[in-house]
Write a structure and sequence with these properties.
Four copies of one chain form a homotetramer.
Chain A: H1 5-32, H2 37-46, E1 50-52, E2 60-61, E3 64-65, H3 75-89, E4 94-96, H4 107-116, E5 120-121, E6 124-125, H5 149-169, E7 173-176, E8 181-182, H6 190-207, E9 213-217, E10 227-228, H7 233-243, E11 247-252, H8 262-271, E12 275-280, H9 297-312, E13 322-325, H10 334-353, H11 357-365, H12 369-381, H13 385-394, H14 401-407, H15 410-418
Parallel strand pairs in A: 1-4, 4-5, 6-7, 7-9, 9-11, 11-12, 12-13
Antiparallel strand pairs in A: 2-3, 8-10
Helix pairs in contact in A: 1-13, 2-13, 3-10, 5-6, 8-9, 9-10, 10-12, 11-12
Chain lengths: 427, 427, 427, 427
């Protein structure tokens, strides 16, 4: 299923006058402050976030799952769904595959289908936190960290195979998220588990093609509830440094202990040249995997503040960042949820681009704390929605993607085509 | 499958000399302090904790589940498993049923099977957090709190039906745990959701037989990640007070925000005469559902300190407490895990029984803070394992239940009988 | 020191054109959505927040305190400082006294000085968390909860005396914040401490004049680090209900465990008719006492969402709420800090007034979760600063209070008058 | 004031029979398990923990301080107090000085006074979190991280001077705890602050004598409440690695976000050869600075588990660890509090020494999770108090130091000598 460009234009036509009025106002406001609005619009238009292949269906919790009609059941249908989102937003130009949930058996066909929708393949993701039916050894007690070398071997080989799948699709990076850890004191010898993990990661790193990057994700708990082998950015960074220059830390916003200052972590990783990528979501308690910007939009803005500054002052040579949404869509239409996330990302990015960095630096140098706060909040309180909408409009996408999606009754069409009760692979 | 009493005695025979030596030492130590050791042993022998019907198989997380061989697949087999535990520990003399996972189609037969193993039926548990295939309305957006009266009706009726199942088995109480809540700001009108929940609970309460009690559980988050309709003890207490005198708050150790002082909550609920029951488990991060006593044994002791004091000074007329283990057995043999939990409960209970309450009261009245701490730690640091073992020995159970279970190779027998790959209902 | 009205007008004159342009734009936007902008402006103009007498000087932490020049050293000077803020903002029309830090020896003169600056006296605050030099018994081990009736008597009498001071100034309410608690397990008999606190509060309540209200604050920890006698809203509510109809719970934003859903607490307290007042501040870790809106502005908006709805649907007859800022000004000029807080409060209030409540109710009734979120965010993302500025302008205050304060060089004048190194009483 | 050795012996004489009975029982128990009890006793006797010079008086919070009678007001008196503790425990054989609170003007005399009490000087501590009256630049906005090079210079020079004071006393290490950070978003350029801190630390490191070590402490918040320049072990480790081989991370138990797995951090730092020292205390909420072992004794045991293993398998060449108590004595007699802490440390250490490491390794290699837990709990549940008492007895200290202290009425003597109302420097 694809959206005809004409439908988007018809939708935009109905909202164009109001939009232009708003955009003109904010443009004039910002121009008065010598801000190049067109450049910002262009930056936003260019910004692309990957959608993972597991995010198109309804998610669940350990207490159950409530299905959503019209879910995609094949990789092809998942690509179609990302295509819908991309057509409406022009922000979702990449897919991130999860192996073995979405094995591309015919890589050329898959690649073509994606390309036809303007999509490329971003980082591929391995999975050693579940057992597959054809698997020789279980990951119940770990994978890359396992006490048994044969299990580690199997997990390493799986990662290498994931890289091969990715190569065939044009991916250039591998994301490793390890569920490895323990739920009880004494279960692990921490130091041995650390060293096993280190050598397994190094082996994977060494097996990657020379133009590939390795992203090492961290998480303090869940699904293990006493310790994780990569609990924090410090461990991830140490592993990355040990692997080599193309290994980087990946930050998932939900993977932190309560009250962690994530934006500072982002800044320090950029200082070290080791920030590799981002998994966007939002949360109140733990790894809640909620819609981006739905709980802590100011934190998101502060993170983008660091990212904008970091990309403009990239002295430590961080790679271009891999952006991905990693949320679970338990209650909303997954496509609406993803579009709300993409919108929230652009809003935060736009706000961060408005920060008066010269004034901020001056206030910081003068320890004028009240002014520092004010300068950030001036940007944050600005209503940037018209700028974001303009960035979509210029790219041929919808001024208001969710409203367009609803007005086109796309979910109904998906249900008609696919039925009410299907479940995406991996969910 | 049942354990022959003789096997237990043979096991005990091998350990009796060492045990007696230890028990004599601690008895003499405590007698010197005018502590009635026999009374403590008897109290521990009498103490019974319910095992829920869903706890006999391997649990999982939203990321997956690793099965364990020989899991029970029917209610009958679950009763057998609790029977094994009870034979070995003499502490697990009750089962807590979860409806609809374990519907007793032939109540008389089920009751007899349980009685044959020395088991009675404790509180029954309703489930409105999952949809069943034959269900008219979905609980995706709530049950007792739902905006739609028809959904609330269905959920109320389900609870009433659960009471009926319970009646047939001799249960005398209903535990309501509500997953109802929201994952996004704005999703609920908090006040309406509160009032719907209140009136639904009241209707269930009023439909219960006169000798039944209602236990209202609270939980701050999961599976909803922004709000829960019963997030804390304050809300549960308000609901219970509104329902009537036989409604009580149920405390699950894992259902609290970080750093909550649970023992104080226990004390205040007992002051109000509204503490109804306990779900035992342990956790480091959230509702981790780990083995009791595996992470915070001192907190468990402090809770038992309040319980012992509360039961001895029950001026507000709290009902006899409903004790249950509510853990998830993801990594260990569920039966071993449950026996470790039962043991940890008895250890904490025994330690709390050793507290010198006269000295403690004097130190408290004198604000002698160092002495207050010392008095608690004197009890906590005492090695009470021989007392706990003696309480089992006198009841005909095993001195060391896990060791006995292993020496009898009971898991192997279960696997032989049931196979390696079965899954318990509800898991 | 007072600000000449003319100075404010001169300041406004310089910014009026830009402001009017912005206000016209947002007015037209909102009028299109049938929102009565004038009514909102009036509501904001009428909104008054009390400034506590201890907030005018530099605060500190247990690690030290860095003074700020020109701090007020007498109650008179503190009134002057609140007068400055009120002249610039017209939002700070009340003072909240802390006894014994600010004893009004000549009540009539103090009252007149305040009236001259347009200020009234809000809730008075007692202090039983420190010992005064002339005090017979120490509060080291508690006050209203103390094991010794003589200490409780002294603390009750102090509270009654504070009411008398308040009466003389025209206050109509007493706020009790208790530091009482313990730092070590065993230190308290929780139940006795609870009951002592209850009866002490009741005695204070009964001693108040008939038109007075009692606000009972809660806090989970600090300065005691194991338990507090009023740790949460549930305990505060129970105490208030026991005292009588004019006893209410007071919510301080910083007094919660990590991740607490404060807005839900606000809603439930209003359902019960027991929300009495608010202490505004912001925090990332604990009771950090930072500038309002500096860390979690979206949470502040969500709280105002409940407050607006609650005030418009006050079926349970909550009293008019007592609003106060309770922050600590360690790094910024306290007056600038307070004006930033007042501004953030008005911004959040204005945003909450923009919520389309009809649409929200419809979306809630339809369980349209994505729409619920959208409706809130539509309001939140609106740039309401021109509306807030207009509300000040119409009231004769400054369009931008902090900028006006800086342009008038008021801090320099305060330093000239009072010197660089003074310390406010109580700091 | 000093304790006559004879007084201690008289005290011990009264308790020796009971003690010997207990020790014989536990010795025989452990010998049965082939544990060398004498070796454990010797290890405990040899273990020495430093007492910081600021810990001898009553501490406080930002809400106030309640003094304790007989507090030391000079460095000499502080040394005397540590001497008392050491005489009673023989575990407190070192003092850790805090400059400028305790400047040793006559180093030789101070050294002699300490030596006379069996004390040496451990790590010295600098202070750049408070301003001293004679100081040119303020640390209000930071010290080693400050935007202004002149402030950084002053702070670096202070640290170098502290090293000089330490040299004169025989210290061989400097502990740097930085309060530097921010309370508001935008206040710092995180990356610049990081780099300033790095270069300042390096300069201090380079100025130290060749046989000195630098300990870099981390803390996530307080006294700054948005960010700290060294918030976590990852940052501390990065700084230490950048400085050189004699720079190490120092772990303070209270300096972690909620739920942090501290024992894993200890293990990873030892893997890296970068664990330098420990600040012991306990806490429930934040940096509560409570008596060691009073809140989470099992966590303390798990940490000692890692330390024992780490010291026995020191492949990465960690230095001998610097042990110090860092607590605040707000409610208890500081000397009793310190002795309770020392006792809790020895108890945890003794328990950790009992762990059956061969069995644990086997259980870990077999992923026998239940057994891993059991092996740890076997050690933890053992009543080791008689072993700890024996270790004191053999060293000439008191079997029960707190009881001995009370029976000798030492606090009364201190009050007689020093008066009721003195305050220690720095408090």
């Amino acid at each position: 299923m694809k959206i005809a460009q004409q439908n988007i234009q018809e939708f935009n036509q109905k909202h164009i006058i109001k939009h232009k009025n708003r955009f003109d106002f904010i443009s004039s406001e910002l121009s008065d402050r010598s801000i190049d609005v067109d450049a910002i619009v262009q930056t936003l238009s260019d910004f692309q976030v990957a959608v993972p292949s597991w995010a198109l269906g309804a998610g669940g919790t350990r207490f159950g799952r409530f299905s959503f009609g019209g879910e995609p059941s094949t990789l092809e249908e998942k690509i179609d769904d990302v295509g819908l989102i991309h057509a409406l937003t022009h922000t979702a130009g990449a897919i991130s595959l999860h192996i073995p949930w979405d094995i591309p058996s015919d890589a050329a066909a898959i690649r073509e289908r994606a390309a036809d929708r303007g999509l490329v393949f971003d980082a591929v993701n391995s999975n050693t936190f579940q057992d597959q039916s054809d698997q020789e050894y279980s990951y119940k007690y770990g994978s890359l960290c396992h006490v048994d070398a044969k299990v580690r071997r199997q997990a390493i080989d799986h990662n290498i195979q994931v890289v091969e799948y990715g190569e065939a699709l044009g991916s250039k990076s591998l994301t490793v998220w390890l569920a490895d850890g323990t739920s009880f004191p004494g279960q692990h010898n921490f130091r041995k588990a650390h060293q096993h993990t280190q050598s397994s990661l190094k082996e994977i790193y060494n097996a990657m093609p020379d133009d590939w990057k390795l992203y090492i994700e961290y998480k303090p708990y869940e699904p293990n509830f006493y310790s994780m082998v990569i609990p924090d950015w410090g461990t991830s960074l140490a592993f990355a440094q040990e692997c080599g220059p193309r290994a980087h830390t990946l930050v998932d916003l939900g993977h932190h202990l309560p009250n962690t200052n994530i934006e500072q972590i982002v800044a320090i990783l950029m200082t070290k040249g080791r920030l590799g990528g981002f998994h966007f979501n939002d949360s109140k308690y733990g790894d809640d995997d909620l819609t981006v910007g739905s709980i802590k939009p100011y934190q998101l803005f502060l993170i983008f503040n660091e990212l904008v500054y970091g990309m403009e002052n990239n002295v430590a040579d961080n790679p271009p960042l891999a952006w991905m949404i990693d949320a679970s869509h338990n209650l909303k239409d997954p496509l609406e949820d993803l579009m709300q996330s993409l919108d929230a990302i652009l809003v935060a990015y736009a706000q961060a681009l408005l920060i008066d960095r010269v004034a901020l630096e001056q206030a910081q140098e003068a320890s004028n704390v009240a002014a520092c706060q004010d300068i950030l909040q001036q940007a944050y309180r600005t209503d940037v929605r018209a700028i974001v909408a303009e960035s979509r409009l210029r790219a041929g996408a919808a001024i208001d993607p969710v409203a367009a999606y609803r007005s086109m009754r796309l979910r109904d069409q998906l249900i008609d085509t696919r039925g009410l009760h299907v479940t995406a692979t991996g969910l």
